[in-house]
Prior knowledge:
- The complex is a heterodimer of chains A (179) and B (1114).
- Chain A has 8 helices and 1 strand; from the N terminus they run αααααβααα.
- Chain A is an all-alpha fold.
- Chain A has a single domain (3-61, 68-177), classed as TorD-like.
- In chain A, α1 (3-30) packs across α2 (37-44), α1 (3-30) runs antiparallel to α6 and α7 packs antiparallel against α8.
- The longest helix of chain A has 28 residues, at 3-30.
- Chain A is globular.
- Chain B has 1114 residues and is an alpha+beta fold.
- Chain B has 36 helices and 45 strands.
- A 7-stranded mixed beta sheet of chain B has the order 8-7-28-27-26-11-12. A 6-stranded mixed barrel of chain B has the order 37-41-38-40-39-45. Chain B has a 4-stranded parallel beta sheet with strand order 16-15-14-23.
- In chain B, β19 and β20 form a beta hairpin.
- Chain B is globular and about 95 Å long.
- The chains are: A mainly alpha (179), B alpha+beta (1114).
- Chains A and B meet through α1, α2, α5, β1 and α6 of A and α1, α2 and β1 of B.
- β1 of chain A pairs antiparallel with β1 (34-36) of chain B, so a sheet runs across the interface.
Amino acid sequence: MDNMVEDNVVLTIGRAKMYSAIFTALYSIYHGKSVPEESVRALKYLSPRIEDWINEIKDERLEELRGSYAFEGLKGHTYQKIMEEFYQTYGFEAKELPPDHVITLIAFMSRLIMEELQSIQRNERERALHFRVIQHRLISTHLLELLGSFEKMKPLLDLVKMDRYILFSALRDEISKSP
Amino acid sequence: MKGLSRREFIKGLVGLGCASVFVAGYAPTIGRIISPKYQSVLPDEEGRILHSACLGCNVRCGIRINILKTDYGEVVERISGNPYHPYNRAVGLENQTKRYFSLPYHTPLKEALNYTGTICGKGEDGIHYLYDPYRILTPLKRSGARGSGKFKVISWEQLIKEVTEGGIIEETGEKIPGLREIFVYGKLKKAGFDPVEVLSEMKKDVDEIKSKIKAKEIADKEALRSHINSFKEKWQKKLSGISLHEILINPERPDLGTKANQVIFYRGRGQAHADYFYRRWIDAFGSVNWLRHTSSCQLGYYAANKLWAGVTDLQMDVHSSKVIVMAGAQMGRLHPGATGQGLLIERAALGELKIYYVNPTAPRTSANGNIVWVPVKPGTDAALAMAILRVMFEKGWYNSHFLSIPNKKAAEKAKQPVYTNATWLVILDGEEAGEILKGKHLGASHDNPIVYSSGYRDSSTVDKAELFHVGKVTIKGKEVNVKTVLQILKDETKSKTLGEWSEICGVPVQMIVKIAQDLYRNAPYSGTTVHRGLGMNPVGEYTVWSFRAIDTLLGNIHRKGGLLGRAGHLKSNDYMYDLKKVKNVSWGFPIDRHGVAYEESFEFIFSGYPAKRPWYPLTPEEIYTEAFAGIHEGYPYPIKALILYYANPVLSANYGIKFIETLKDTKRLPLFIGITTTINETYLYADYIVPDTTYLDGGTMGCQFLYASSGGVKIAETWRTPAVMPQTVKVGTCPNGHPKYASMWEFLIDVALRLGMPGFGEKAIMGNPEKEEMKDRTFSLFCVWEYIMRVFANSAMDGKDAGLIKEASPEEIKFVEKNYPLAQFKKIVPNEWKYIAYGLARGGVFTDYRSSFDENGVSTRKPPTELLQLWNEKLAKTKNSLTGKKFYGGPKYFEIRDYTGRGLKKEFEAYPFTVVFPGSPLFTKHRSMFYYWMKQIMPENFALIHPEDAKEAGIKSGDTVTIETPTGYLDVKAVIEPSVMKGVIAIPVGMGRWADTVIMKPKYFTLKDEKVNSLIEGLPPKIEIPEEAVNPVKALDELRKKILFTKSKKSYYEHLIPDNWRFSGVTPNVVSLVDSSTGNWPLLSWIGGAQNYFTVAKIVKRREGKTEVPWIIW
Lengths: 179, 1114
């Protein structure tokens, strides 16, 4: 394995941990539980002030973090359906939480990175690339817009924006290397 | 977090990635919130579910069958795809977005049941094969003249007795011979001889004479006569008490073999292990006439590959190829079938693959522009190949490194899986013209091919040699010209300009160059997928070979993305139980003279050229036309009995209608036994009908190999197992207590038992002596279950020892025992059962594509061949048995011609149109007419005509046109579409039936040969058959009947009456071409004897029609 690939794998593992930690934090808060220490520890690698943000939102109600609430009019009305179809396109379905909830979107990001890592492990580059493309699509099409509509999600929005950049650069390199 | 820079973020991510912080504990929660979407297809509480193999077409997809239990018994309810199978690729967790791969083989069954696989419409509609109201369920015997359509029910015992001992048609008084008359083994045994000992020695004596002929020690009639007389004298004395006439077909011609050769076992659709089983039977009988339908299938393709590579089947990697020239390969019809080809189309649509679709008819999808239609004038494809090759030579677009390797050792050194004979030199003139120049020609002590590498050198001593060389050498004192094989090919491509080649094939020069460029740029991920359209015409072998020359220049063989051989399979015939060997001896020429040279026969010494009929020494498989012509003309010897299994040559061969003459003639064919599910156009002439099982109720059970399009996996075999027990009548119980149902299997076993054939009954099967635990053990064979369970045992144990098959878990064993009817026979193979259950549960044994290649992209399997030949010395030395002239020995473009080499251009002049017979993805065979659901999508077939041709002739869609061909007139409905080339009429095959246990006289054609035409006019008005002999549907409950046949009146599935929809459309085969140089028998290809599937035609009449044309045409 050359250095570049090794770096990419480490970055992907980092990204997997990041989304898993964000998910864990939000999911715990959603259910009125305290955020597990390891999630906070993980996110601190990315920003020392993350703990402040978690403290700020830990008593918040997170039910309204949904596209249906965020967007007015037709878009809001159909957003649940839009997300359902988005997952379905890639062979998945949302359960337990509404499909247009931020936590569900984060869970999907987490799931996609896990699939990507599995593909890398099995040396299936094309499949890994495939899952990376879906991540980029999810972030660009839905996640950024949704996070951007909730003020309290601003710190999270910054992280995801950064992530999109990482993802975009990696994809650009990968595609330019393709025969 | 404001101000976080990208650099810091990346640093943070790397730190997090490396840190020992684990947040994976929440993965199950994530899995709960967002999970794969699938529909559960777990077995119904009231039913069963199992995996097996499809037989809608021939590609052997994996299927999942749901069986419902009702108060009236079981009924097959639904057929879907098996997600473990490489063709049917799982639709599930990882594969919904790209349906590329099957489920990993060791996925537990419980989990696998949550996934489904893809399957085509034919596969789903297989239910109507099982529940076909026209299915025969009991044995029948002719009760009127041959072809009168009159049959009566007889008992199984009477059937077995009469076919072995002979019978009388009570209604006509005709005497029918039994098989015992020609069962030589039995005669010798009865006379107190050891049959194997006698026949082995006799064969040795015949072989000795033959080898003397070969060595030219016997060169004239007198010498041969004298040897034959000595043979006769010896054997008449040795076999005192039994006449030589009782043993040999003709004692004056001992090379023809024993009288046992006078029985033919001819199969149409054959698949493992039925194929191996009747091979075992005919071997035990002692006949060489085990024949297959390949001439009507893909024989031209097989024969060409054999000339080129020594193997019959090589196709492009469906997973990783980037450019495929798909020539004469009907999309949706070619292996791997409609379902498997979904992968090609999906990859093309995603831009991973470009297909150049070389065909006179258009592909049915352009896949986002990546499937490019290259219309080519029918029969001129070789000109296109020559043009592409010419460009490749001119531009240097070939793999010179690969081509210059002259031997195996050098190939291994260069890490090449195969090598070619491109550098070998060919003698161009003199006595040895066409031969490869070898050491012996130049007086050397070795016999290796000679190459040019700074002088003439032994090919085995150099690692590379010159690709192009023209020179002179001295052989036996005479100077002769020599050229390298590649030079010959290059010169052949330069025999015409690019513009001239383009003019011949109709493909623009620009397109030719583009194809060549794309092929070269993407090598070795590029190459050709070729099939019937190229091979099934008189010059088919040369055409296929010309395309394979392109692959050779690309060096794509046995490589990822390139040409691959068939997937491997396990030792299902002998790993534990030796199911192959039987102790009998046979020799002689098969009735169709395939695989044998005329010059090997004694007849050649006596009569010389021309032979009475063509011989086909270089064809790998069998020929319908020549088998029937052979029976008709008693050549090379008369036939006494034909056992025809699962076939319909009258309809499936071009102008096979002529075979009726032979089938109807009780003198030329005294005994005709039909093994079939329905009485089709051919079985109508049978003396006895043996009812057979379908692939869903015990027919063609066993371990099925996959074709070369199986994606390059190391091992892939689909296991076919009955979904329900046979629907045919129960005919007894074997001595070991197993039930016997009327079928091919039990018929052959019971005939064998009655005749006392070796390899059946007690101690019939030997244990494999190489396995300590099987040594010196013997096993009985009284019923099919005792055979088939051992087939699965062989495969399972080989799979286990190879690390592929595991011991099934108690849960999986429980599942198999609940769901698979075969499980009731597990006691036959108690030690192997838990491994068999593992394979049965998964529908076979499959390895993964992704682990099939090494780091260099070379397949990790043994290469299918070592040497690729662009010049075949054997062919160059072979003479046409009618003219005595040598065949050309390499790829070349020829115009269409007859067997003697006479061009047919002049004869075709009066016919401006070429009619091609594409296969349809919906109806692949004439038997497909039982597909009730498919017929509602495509109720009949049409003649596709180009809009410009239609405008000229004043035809519009829905009109009926009469087309005239050299052999007859055909009325067919027209569909005007630009998806066919101008000047071409396409009539998809598969329809136009007239007999299927009922008769509906065809009115859509008349033939110019009055004698043949009268055979159709003389068809009986109906088939007279007792209603209790047919129809498994009657046993179902009313609701099931209505669900199965939603659009039919009750009379269709309750009574034996012809329903129009089963007999719609036309078949162009009936007015196809014949060969006047072989007595107006169906036209065949030169080398392979492949049936010819095209004709020429003119439109002679038009009748306005108002038929509504369905939007799906074919």
